[in-house]
Amino acid sequence: MSKKELDFDYSKYAFHDDVDYVFTTQKGLNEDVIRKISEYKKEPKWMLEFRLNAYKTFLELPMPKWGPDLSNINFDEITYYMSPTETKGRSWDDVPEYIKKTFDRLGIPEAERKFLAGVGAQYDSEVVYHSLREDLEKQGVIFLDTDTGLKEHEDIFKEYFGTVVPPEDNKFAALNSAVWSGGSFIYVPPGVKVDIPLQAYFRINAANVGQFERTLIIADKNSRVHYIEGCTAPIYSTHSLHAAVVELIALEGSKIRYTTIQNWSKDVYNLVTKRAFAYKNAFVEWVDGNIGSAITMKYPSVYLLGPHAKMEVLSIAYATDNQIQDTGSKAVHLAPYTTSRIDARSVSKGSGLTTYRGLVHIAKGATNCKSSVRCDALLLDDESRTSTYPYIEALEDDATITHEATVGKIGEEQLFYLMSRGLNEAEALNFIVMGFLEPFAKELPMDYAIELNRLIQLDMSDSIA
Q: What sign results for the dihedral spanned by CA atoms 389, 393, 397, 398?
């Protein structure tokens, strides 16, 4: 069966707009560029100082000496800030027409109408639209783009910003700290439960651009929130860089679920640092889907700081030709009676490479901890590859830790059985892959599960001769 016969259309994601940006910095990075970004945003002095110190750290830190080869990244050819509009819309009517058309094609207004409590949309360097349901605003919930969060809630912002992921953490966290723009700022007051998801959508439009959003979510005592983000970009002949930082703070008794569905084009380097602090009786969930990009390096982690804190990570990685999905998770147990569970699944086809890198650390004094890690990989052909690098360090003898890893391959007998029941080869392959990924898909809202299935089908179409 040919790809054409499957009749799928990539244009929903692959298009780009011709835009006259209202403000852009020159290519490359120096102190002058950082000062211009901060001045344009009218930031307080302490934030400019934070950026400049982070830039110095960026220059000092080496590139990662492990994992995929990042030597093709040319920091001097990247544009670090591009603003498509001078205003941020609180109403959809406030958004420039060409941007509205872009997000209409991507389904953002439709998604908001259907089931979301709030929506944010970022286009290159700036958030262009943000809204929150009135009933949540009346309960004191804050859901803003991060720049507006800094301006309107500086006291809360300054208390937590950069405390979970400091610039010194790694070179790309330092780069983000120096040039960050956009992202989401969320604060949920004590006892408030936001049961309907908040969403942000991140779109890279221009070539050779860097997107460096910074997301900060604080769930106060006994609160609850679910945040979903989606990501896309058009295809160019040169690479773009996405280097985000996400900081989650789950205070006592709170629960945060963070869901990501990324479908970056295959010319994007996706190098992201995501980390959470979970305090006493708090629960943090990462639901992480990685499809697309040239290289992804992403390892959502949770530091379990209080007794009885819990974390769960459910992730998938799908690597097709010339893609590297280097993903995993970290569970750092720093308090007694803490629990972690990591379930990582990957699918590789063609020259695609998936890698799981994981860490489970049980600190001295963190007694009666439990951790479970499961890594399952599915290979679609003889060429595809997968690797697993688990690291377990237990400094207490009473810890209960399990690790399980499997690698499987689709057999001809499986395909024959399904095809004998009336499925064609493409449908049979998709059936097997989606069954393998079902634990992830069932955790998504219905619209997102359907979209995940569609994205897998698009890539699966290339598997059919």
A: negative
CB 292 within 8 A of CB 320: no
H or E element in which residue 316 lies: strand 310-319
| The two three-digit tokens of residue 377, written as one number | 């990989």
pLDDT in tens, 174-215: 999 999 988 889 999 999 998 778 877 665 554 556 789 899
* 301, 334 contact by CB (below 8 A): no
pTM to 2 decimal places: 0.84
Residue identified by tokens 């992730």 is 315
- Encode pLDDT of 59-107 as tens digits: 999 999 899 999 999 999 988 887 755 554 455 555 555 445 555 554 5
- The CA-based diameter of the chain, rounded to the nearest angstrom, is 69
| Tokens 């009885």 belong to residue | 308
- C-alpha distances in Å from residue 111, one per residue of 198, 205, 464: 11, 21, 32
Residue 446: CB atoms within 10 Å:
9
Given this model, what pLDDT does residue 109 score?
46
Contact indicator for 356, 329 with CB cutoff of 8 Å? no
Query: Cα-Cα-Cα-Cα dihedral of 63, 29, 155, 246, to 10°?
Result: -40
**Residue type for position 272:** V
Stretch among 6-15, 114-123, 132-141, 154-163 having the lowest mean pLDDT: 6-15
Helix orientation angle between 45-60 and 171-179, rounded to the nearest 10 degrees: 150
φ/ψ of 317, rounded to 5, equals -135, 135
Report residue 237 as tokens. 């002949």
The number of C-alpha atoms within 13 Å of 370 and in the hemisphere containing its C-beta is 8
Q: What are the pLDDT digits (tens) for 427-444? A: 787 778 878 888 877 777
Question: Measuring CA to CA, how many Å separate 407 from each of 386, 410, 415?
Answer: 8, 10, 18
Q: Which amino acid is at 285?
A: E
Can you read off the two tokens belonging to residue 126?
């700036």
Which of these, 276, 333, 265, lies nearest to 301 by C-alpha position? 276
